[in-house]
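Q: Structure tokens for this one, please.
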Amino acid sequence: MLDTVIGLAADNLLSPIILFFVLGLLASFLRSDLSIPEAVAKGMSIYLLFAIGYKGGVSVSDHGIDQTLLSTLVMGIVLSFALPLIAFGLLQVMTKLSRTDAAAVAGHYGSISIVTFVAATSVLQSQGIASEGYMVAIAAAMEAPAILSALWLVSRGSKPSAEETEEREGLLREILLNGSIVMLVGSFLIGFITGKDGLAEIESFIVSPFKGVLCLFLLDMGLVAGRGLRSSRGVLTVGLISFGVLMPVVGSLLGLLASMLVGLSLGGTVLMMTLSASASYIAVPAAMRVALPEANPSVYLTMSLGVTFPFNLTLGIPLYLTLATLIGN
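A: Here is the predicted structure, written as tokens:
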């Protein structure tokens, strides 16, 4: 199995999307003035969410809603609630983080990284492996529950003030109306309504340019991750780095178990494992800034974007594909 993982990892490392991420890392470490304007980066993010959601909706329209889809949706939500609890326990054993910081970090590991999901989809396509189109809906459903788990973990340790309680009660609406979720779910619904005929009208816009835009987006992610690692040298301990590698593996195994229970295909299993293994760096950090302003952003952002994200891109996805293939056989 190790040879298979190494072989897939080597192929993945030589793909354009990974090499552009590495370019961004190197440029940041070398203190190059290379940068992607924030407005451009946000535009690329919107494009990727639009393309992913729309194609997922078209796939579900073609496939139809069935018991497997509904079961997978329930499993995804359960995992998103449960994974932060496991992450919190591991952090308390492996690190010396405060309860608040540990809960903030844990919340990132129940939510998802849409770019990691896209990278896994690209790997499956390169291997000729089909997957359930509705997995994009599962990704959207797994964004918010983890944030609620993180807030529950903090509330168990201390009683929040009246002002904090009011802020957190209004947070759920903010989470559900987060731009990335609105774009992803909205595009999915439009794709579901318009189906293959609608896709045919805009295929030249959302299919052919997709990987090129993804390469540029990952270049920006590399720049951001590199800056975070440079500025957080004193934050990353051996325990934190070990957690950032161990937790994705734990999450992926739970995702594998869930996939077996609902009967997903090989491709769907890999995507569920990837979703369960990834860590949010968009929706959850934004929520933590509002709900837990006392938590240290340099810890949770560096963990999700600087440790777990590169691990999943380089070694994680090939490992999940190998495990899913072995179990499936």
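A few notes: The CA atoms of residues 32 and 265 lie 44 Å apart. The mean pLDDT is 85.
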